[in-house]
Amino acid sequence: MNGDLQNIDAEGLRQHYRTMWRIRALEQMALKGFDEKLVLGAIHPSIGQEAVAAGVIACLDRDDLLLSTHRGHGHTLAKGASSTAMMRELLGREGGNCGGKGGSMHIADFAIGMLGANGVVAANIVIAAGAAHAIKLKGESRLVVCFFGDGAINRGPFLEGLNWAAVFKLPVLFVCEDNGYAATTRTATMTAGGGPSVRARALGVAQAAFDDALRYAQDRHSFGKPIWKHQSIGNYLADGATKITAARQLILHAAERFDAGLRCDMEAGMAKLFASEIAMQVALDAVRVHGGYGYSTEYDVERYFRDAPLMIVGEGTNEIQRNVIAAQLVKRGGLDRG
Asked: How do residues 134-180 score in pLDDT, each as one tens digit?
């Protein structure tokens, strides 16, 4: 125990604690200003979430970039913004980070790499992917960090941004602050299945396994030609691409219903059911494409093949998803043919 304590960075912990208290103090003053009608418009504090901002941002360099949500005060302050400038911004005064014109939900400070908070749920995710893509194209060594809430997982930009980042292997870290609410709505009442991590894993396993299989099929040769030209291997690739595209459309359909304020538990259940099962199928086909190497830890497909079954049995099993779908089919009188 004593040896463990000796390895603790006491000064680093004190700095984290100071950052957390600075965030709390700023937001308490902002709320007081709101109550006194000095802060105009909406204000969304992150009280209780200070440790997330302090811990994540402490690991960043000053040149790294940051995107936030409508609860962006803590992230901005932790990244190095002036608390005085932030209060001026919230009060709509000259000398604020954005000249007093951005306010609470659109605060930004490019000098410290804070690209901005965002009042539109999930909109910052695709912006983060774009910023990270620019960094990669320029050959820079910076990182983009994007905070988002659990409510964002039911919107289309969540899927688009994560898929974009995975396909192009972008230098971006997505951080989900799961506080149980989408603005003022309980996320659990609008989300089927196990939530953010399950959806990200199910889609990611299939996409990653397919990407590796496609690369291997192009690089590996047998009988004087790349193995993708052999019919059986080509079939695996065609099937995988088709299944992943279908899963993506199911997820987008559920997200569109959510955005429209329509009930979407059946559609979300279908998306989780299909995405998790095709993850298993695509991972198995990726192992087949790799042949004996598919069982070797030298290749990532071995890990994807081990991870895929968890998508089926974890966080709301597929049997439960089928029960939800069947119950809604009976209640709604069948499928919507629109």
From this structure: 999 999 999 999 999 888 888 888 888 988 898 888 999 999 998 87
- The pairing of strands 65-67 and 114-116 is parallel
Q: Is the dihedral of CA 228, 234, 240, 246 positive or negative?
A: positive
> pLDDT by residue (tens digit) across 121-146?
899 999 999 999 999 999 999 999 99
Rg value, the chain, Cα: 23
Token pair for residue 314? 């974890």
Question: What is the distance between the alpha carbons of residues 157 and 204, in angstroms, rounded to a whole number?
Answer: 15
Distance between CA atoms of 95 and 228, rounded to whole angstroms?
61
Distance between CA atoms of residues 76 and 53, nearest Å: 9
Question: d(Cα 106, Cα 118) in Å, to the nearest integer?
Answer: 6
How does pLDDT run across 41-93, given as a tens digit for each residue? Answer: 888 899 999 999 999 999 999 999 999 999 999 999 999 999 999 999 999 99
Q: Per DSSP, what are the bridge partners of residue 116?
A: 67
pLDDT at 93 (0 to 100): 93
Angle at 262 between CA 257 and CA 267, to 5 degrees: 50
User: Which residue has 């919107």 as its token pair?
Assistant: 155
The pTM of the full predicted model, rounded to 2 decimals, is 0.65
Q: What is the b/e burial string over 104-126, where b = at least 16 CB atoms within 10 angstroms of the residue's CB?
A: bbbbbbeebbbbbbbbebbbbbb
CA distances 2 to 5, 7, 8, 10, 105, Å, are: 5, 9, 10, 14, 45
Report the distance separating Cα 39 and Cα 93, nearest Å. 10
- Residue 134 to residue 138: CA distance in whole angstroms: 6
Predicted pLDDT of residue 174: 94
CA distances from 35 to 29, 30, 42 (A): 10, 9, 11
